[in-house]
Write a structure and sequence with these properties.
The structure is a homodimer. Chain A folds into 2 domains: 1-89, Arc Repressor Mutant, subunit A, CATH 1.10.10; 91-151, Dna Ligase, domain 1 (2-Layer Sandwich). Chain A is built from 6 helices and 5 strands; from the N terminus they run ααααββββαβα. Chain A has helices spanning 4-14, 21-30, 39-48, 55-67, 110-122, 138-147, and strands at 71-77, 80-85, 93-97, 103-106, 125-136. In chain A, strands 4-3-5 form a 3-stranded mixed sheet. A two-stranded antiparallel sheet of chain A has the order 1-2. In chain A, strand 3 (93-97) and strand 4 (103-106) form a beta hairpin. The termini of chain A are far apart. Strand 5 of chain A pairs antiparallel with strand 6 of chain B. Bound molecules: manganese (II) ion (2 copies) and zinc ion (2 copies). The first copy, chain A, binds a DNA duplex through helix 4.
DNA sequence: ATTATTGTTGAAACTAAATTGCAATAGGAG
DNA sequence: CTCCTATTGCAATTTAGTTTCAACAATAAT
């Protein structure tokens, strides 16, 4: 999978916009890792590799990368937005540890049933669902138990 | 239901904090409507009723009101956080129209099954789930169809 | 190849949400 | 009532995100 660049290039061209080295650097850096990311992190990663791309350019290009369906917003945390890949990643939801921040991705077919049921009941044309399940992972629960904080 | 005030009062006392007229005004105003709300809106509602409570006090008290389980964060939209009642409101999820902003609250028992399944599979102690289902409501779909935008 | 058009860039200014420092005030325990 | 210290309003600050602007560069036309 190194197709993101080509896809984004053609998306940009089709919109009558221009392919620039900055756009290439940004999209490459985003897809150089499979993790969830945020703007600041991405900016630092680019800088560390010697790129001179500005934060303004990242902020300006993220909406385009979302529009091209390569990434999407996942959650707003610590005062800023976080993103993840869509391309090459398939639909999934998140199980998150409130203590250590661990994230587990999962897919549950029943959610599509629920979606369908809701669409019928409330006469909605449903585009997507986002389920976040939050709690304590096994490590964090063990630590808490050892410390005697919770049951 | 006018019990929120008493509950918050005793929560504040138990924490060794102080009950003030500002806290009373804020909690009363929050529970004077059943709608989702944000800080600015709440501030304006208070001012219109002649309250002199500052925004800083609202920002300082919202975390306490959340800690007392009377309200919670629902979603971050238009650059700021939105909240909703928990007390007197029961757990529910949201179906939202991406076009007009309409929000429908629903409860689906299958979600608790999914929760349970995930807890077992990934060894998590689950605290809660949040499901947002987004799409177009029937009115918005009709308008779009009339305008010939989508199928 | 040259030129014209116009989208893109980095830097800096700006906006708005949320937080914090501070001096004045006021709960509430004793 | 007295004292201790939490809370308040205000203003300053911080930070995410947007916008302005002049220099630049991708692309199409000539
Ligand atoms: Mn993910
Ligand atoms: Mn709700
Ligand atoms: Zn954990
Ligand atoms: Zn609608």
């Amino acid at each position: 999978m190194g197709n993101e660049i080509a896809l984004f290039r053609s998306f940009i061209s089709k919109k009558g916009l221009r392919n620039t080295p900055e756009r290439e650097e940004i999209i490459k850096e985003i897809f150089s890792s499979h993790d969830h990311f945020d703007v600041d992190e991405l900016y630092l990663r680019l800088r560390q590799k010697g790129s001179r791309v500005s934060k303004a350019s990242i902020y300006r290009n993220i909406p385009l990368i979302m529009e091209s369906c390569l990434i999407r917003e996942v959650w707003h945390e610590d005062g800023h937005m976080h993103y993840e890949h869509i391309y090459g990643h398939g639909h999934h939801c998140h199980l998150r540890c409130i203590q250590c921040g661990k994230v587990i991705e999962f897919v549950d077919q029943d959610l599509f049933e629920i979606e369908k049921r809701l669409g019928t009941k409330y006469d909605f044309e449903i585009l997507e669902h986002r389920l976040d399940v939050i709690g304590y992972c096994s490590e964090c629960r063990q630590h808490a138990a050892a410390a005697g904080d919770r049951s």
